[in-house]
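ok here's ABC-type sugar transport system, ATPase component, seq below lol
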Amino acid sequence: MLLRVSAIVLCALLFAGLCAARAAAATILVIQSYHAEYAWDAEWLQTLRLRLTPEHTLLTFELDTKRLPREEFAARAGLAMDAYRRHAPDVVVLADDNACRLLGPQLVSAGARIVYMGVNGNPRDYGLHGPENVAGVIERPLVKRTLSYLSRLEGLTLRRALMLFDSGTTSQLIFRTVLRGAAEQNVMGIELQTRIVGSWQQWLEHVLSARGQGADILIIGLYQTLRDADGRVVPDDKVLRWTAEHSPVPCFAVWEFSVGPGLAIGGLLHSAEEQAHRAAGLVESMLAGEPLPVQPVLAEQGMLKFSRSGLARWGLVLPATFIDQVEMVP
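and the structure came out like this:
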């Protein structure tokens, strides 16, 4: 009899636990500024899934603003709001600036609980600073610290660096916030020239003339919105590989997805994985009813990563002080 009662109690406890777990499960709508094939999105989305599923349901919507013309952004944002109303998610994750700019005010007005990530602009400009049900992670590429590390490479005399960006929203924001809108500046004794490039043809010209412009290195910024003479977006992998192959000076980067064999050599890199881990933590806190940070979280640790083949091609050697800090790839 005692065994039977114990079994009944155990079943009841298990059932109660199952019900509680089901009650805790949430629907999370992730609105991407870009698209799933973009390396940045692929990395942070994978990290979010590892952190938040299968306990919670993760739904995604792509605004695709790296590839679509600007005049179509508003229509895509309207479809994203339709998805929000249709799914009635417990939390919305807004990834990168275009999603925040296009949807932040509308979602705040709708009473959505929001976690933003990958934001280079000021969250206030998107209506995302102040509401109690909003928290997020901002992104600041580590340009100055990257130059500091690169200046210590053996075999490289670094006096002047040329950094190239496309003319997309994120590039413009980085130029205004991180670089203070300065096309020419001195960073720890290194002259840094930054160019915002609107077309593939202009990008080719800047790369090929880098040495003639006095640059010792080229830093590859963002390049995913470059368009050819027919107005078509040039595949980002094509831009990256062509640049690394044809540049007359060594190419480095500030984003992890740009580094590898046949790509940029390396740098102190900004990681999508780090952004996603911070954002997932905020989602979990929000669902648990825990206090949220009033100020945006800044994910800026960065990671040192270099390609062996890239270093060898240019006769560069990492100093001994790097060895314990760096991740090496072929």
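fwiw The radius of gyration is 23 Å. kinda neat tbh
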